[in-house]
Amino acid sequence: MTLPDDFITQAKATMGDELWTLLAQGLCSEAPVSIRLNPWKCREGMWTAVDAADCVAWCSSGYYLNSRPNFTFDPMLHAGMYYVQEASSMFLDLVLRQYVTGGAVRMLDMCAAPGGKSTVARAALPAGSLLVSNEPMRTRAQILAENIQKFGHPDVIVTNNYPQEISRSGLMFDIILTDVPCSGEGMFRKDPVAINEWSPQNVEKCRRLQREIVAEAWQCLRPGGLLVYSTCTFNTKEDEDNVSYICEELGAEVLPVDIDGDWKITGSLLNGFDKPVYRFLPGLTRGEGLFMAVLRKTDDGATEQGRPQTKKQKNGRERGKKQSTAKPDKGWLTSPDDYEITENGDTFTAIPKAWKDVYDLASRSLKVLSAGVELGEIKGKDIVPAHALALSTAFNAQAFPSVSLNYAQAISYLRKEAVTLPPDTPRGYVVMTYQDVPLGFMKNIGNRANNLYPTEWKIKSTHIPEGKNNVIIKN
Q: Which fold has domain 5-30+85-301?
């Protein structure tokens, strides 16, 4: 690995020779492989990581693996049973469990794609909490929506908006995560592109952008609320300097996180700045590069929220279009009385009543990609159940007949290939399962069956995997 000379000079000046030597060695070593089980689908004690080395110390659902399996060919990954995530990012779980211990809250993940930290947050938040998971970049927002739908928790809204649009929406939050775009020094070990794109000029550009994002986030953070600031970079300009800016210019106090010295997490590297911050360095900590700080918005940092800027959206059926008599069956959900069914265009969605008002405001002022549980779409006189329904933890699997697939059939289904159903399979929509876990729907029309797996999600590789590639197994 050849690192930029300017980066080496900067890192040595910041860290000192001893710490720099450890980091340099770490960047040249093999990155650890880790996964995090989805606690809403993998009930405690029921599932085990096959090749687990040990647990991630700061996240009870995280596991290091001894080797990197071929994740693509594990049906459980596509079912949202676990998420492939480097261990340092799981530190958010510890932060939220320490500071969010009361009742339901509202949280915003401002720059959320691809969704790893959002799923960490949703797993750690108290029951009844709402997470708004936002990504400004359109293509990345689609990936975020896919991963959130696979995770399957109904109390999430996914949006595709710039920070300034969020701050003008009128939405207010108790917790905001700003995992801001950065110069990516912490990704050098696994992403050569990050090395090629690094420059002192890009560091400065990122520093300015990060402050702009935080300033917008501050507008929709309630007084007394928590801001979690994080980057995947090492330099103090994007890290400690920005935390200092938040404290001095916006009005915040930095909060400590309870950690164990054995984790070898590094504190502040900026002279004269001794507030509690947490830096993960490859070669020292078992994970990729990460910086995180937890801040509380003081009353002095309160800002007056302006009137929400709303935009016209098509709510409900298009005017003049004939209404369909088809309606989704509320029995598709395990607790249907907890939801209000909304109809937007040809799509039906179940929105939890507990935060329907938030959804209404968001749908008027923001670009909402998904929310609650998507139930299905009208096609002619029929309603085709949504793939997201099958993956939702609110799904009542007993509402549809099901077919259990073996491993080879499951891979064929995930490739959107033809799958032969048993001759006694009822006609209509059928849930495909693997080891009793829903994968999605097919429609049995008698002489054949249509594979309804989303085209954009299908396994594109034509490789024939050896063995079953099971990363997790049921106990």
A: Rossmann fold (3.40.50)
Catalytic residues: 232
Whether the pLDDT of residue 319 is over 80: the answer is no
Model confidence pLDDT, tens digit, residues 10-69: 999 999 999 999 999 999 999 999 999 999 999 878 999 999 989 999 999 999 999 999
Domain extents for the chain?
5-30+85-301, 312-353+374-396
Task: State whether residue 19 is helix, strand or coil.
Answer: helix
Please return the burial class of 389, using the count of CB atoms within 10 Å of its CB with bins 0-12, 13-18 and 19+. buried
Residue with tokens 């040249």: 28
Strands 368-371 and 472-474: unpaired
- Assign residue 384 a region: left if phi > 0, alpha if psi is -120 to 50, beta otherwise? beta
SS3 459: coil
User: How remote is the C-alpha of 162 from its chain's centroid?
Assistant: 17
Helix H or strand E segment including 416: none
Closest CA to 181 of 157, 159, 167, 197: 197
Are 16 and 271 in contact, with CB atoms under 8 Å apart?
Answer: no
- Any residues with CB less than 8 A from the CB of 471 and at least 6 apart, and which? 35, 49, 50, 51, 65, 69, 71, 74, 76, 77, 82
